Amino acid sequence: MKRLEEKAPAKVNLALHVTGRQDDGYHLLDSLVGFSSKGDRLIFEPAAVDGFTISGRFAPLLLEESGGENLVLRARDALRRMSEALGHAAPPVAIHLEKNLPLASGIGGGSADAAATLHGLQRLWQSSLSPERLMEIGLTLGADVPMCLAGKPLQAQGIGEHITPVADFPSFGLVLGNPLKPVSTPAIFKRLESRHNPPIGHLPRLGADQRTWIAFLQTLRNDLEPAARLLCPEIADLAALMAGTGALITRMSGSGATCFSLYATEDEAEKACAALLSARPDWYFSASTLMGSGD
């Protein structure tokens, strides 16, 4: 065993349709999901006893809100229990989380960290659990964790557990923006005007280019965005600012308050990000690549 690193890329809901609600209160979703080339980072090393440390821009807020409890630790403990039950060793490990993504912002930061923990410890412990076993653990940690375990363009349905890879999805330049204002996901769902909306429908044909995908994305929506804008008016200001940078499309991700803009290239995204940071240095902006199916 030796030091290992895992990326925890931001999860971007390119579209999120609320299609129903189960008797247990969970909402049924139909979502098109992509992943950024940037995000949090985790480091795993063998140790005499378990350890967990955090650094990065959003580390202080994470420590303040979680009181030391974290999805990373829950993922570690869940994987250890299953590994040991199957006869695999799961010795102590020191984990370091570099927290670069804003908290509770609609881009799956905690879920991405949990998924990266499962992947990283699977490698460190050489436990060789099947992908199905990892997905089983992931779903116990949160509905977004199985998507983050996949880490490729996908369509997620049900409460997020039914995952279908999206073939031939092209890469784009990506800017993520957040006004650094908290938004309550339960409050957003409570304000939904309709919980039974049309699903996404048929995706573009295999081999479709950027232009075709953008035209398709423009026919879709995020059903949580209107309610989120009522609760956090800064989202509307943020989206207008980002759309004004020549973006191909701008939309809120997940339950917000993060918005994304897509561009033809990462270079265009970098230029847009610089302009946005100049206009609002007090907000969060990050440029990267929205990874394609082959990345």
Helices and strands, in order, run as: EEEHHEHHHEEEHHHHEEHE
CATH fold group of the largest domain: Ribosomal Protein S5, domain 2
CATH class group of the largest domain: Alpha Beta
Poorly predicted sequence stretches spanning 5 or more consecutive residues: none
Active site: 11, 144
Enzyme class: transferase
Catalytic activity: 4-CDP-2-C-methyl-D-erythritol + ATP = 4-CDP-2-C-methyl-D-erythritol 2-phosphate + ADP + H(+)
Family: Belongs to the GHMP kinase family. IspE subfamily.
What does this structure look like?
It is an enzyme of class 2 (transferase). There is one protein chain. The model has no long low-confidence stretch (mean pLDDT 94). The chain folds into 2 domains: 161 residues, 2-Layer Sandwich (Ribosomal Protein S5, domain 2), CATH 3.30.230.10; 124 residues, 2-Layer Sandwich (Alpha-Beta Plaits), CATH 3.30.70.890. It is an alpha+beta fold. It has 10 helices and 10 strands.
Secondary-structure blueprint of this entry?
Blueprint: E1 4-21, E2 27-46, E3 51-55, H1 59-66, H2 71-85, E4 93-98, H3 109-125, H4 131-141, H5 145-150, E5 154-158, E6 162-165, E7 172-178, H6 185-190, H7 210-217, H8 225-231, H9 234-243, E8 249-252, E9 259-263, H10 266-279, E10 284-290
Parallel strand pairs: 3-4
Antiparallel strand pairs: 1-2, 2-4, 2-5, 5-6, 7-9, 7-10, 8-9
Summary?
The protein has helices at 59-66, 71-85, 109-125, 131-141, 145-150, 185-190, 210-217, 225-231, 234-243, 266-279, and strands at 4-21, 27-46, 51-55, 93-98, 154-158, 162-165, 172-178, 249-252, 259-263, 284-290. The protein is globular and about 55 Å long.
